[in-house]
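Field reference: "sequence" (input) and "structure" (output). Example, EF-hand calcium binding domain 11:
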Amino acid sequence: MFYSQPGLRPRTWEASSPEHKKWVEVFKACDEDNKGYLSREDFKVAVVMLFGYKPSKIEADSVMSSVDPNTSGIRLKEFLDIVRKKKEAQLYRSEVRHIFTAFDRHYRGYLTLEDFKKAFKQVAPKLSERIILEVFRLQIVACSETEYLV
């Protein structure tokens, strides 16, 4: 379920009961020795099971450096929080891609200023052209800084 507060992105997401149960089951399955935590390798296996890809060394390092240093690995509560955040990011990227695709009528992989204007006329017809141009300009700057391609 998604819920959001005006102006905040990305929206927060809560797992359904069956999904939450699945995450706990994956944690338990990957915690083979019932240590109460996942090692770096256990975490990688859990990500493969839940998301279908093996995390990179950088991602694994980032996650392992974020856990409580007094533990030997990722405890269940931390694991559930990590998985929830990964799922939120996945859903947000999917939503952005879906919206972008709806406005990319010529299937070029990018939006021209004219595409952008048409899109805004559909969703916000009373918005001034000056604001639309400014938003378009800001998106170009944001994309060039992050090199983000949809």
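Strands lie at 2-3, 12-13, 37-38, 74-75.
Residues 76-103 form the longest helix (28 residues).
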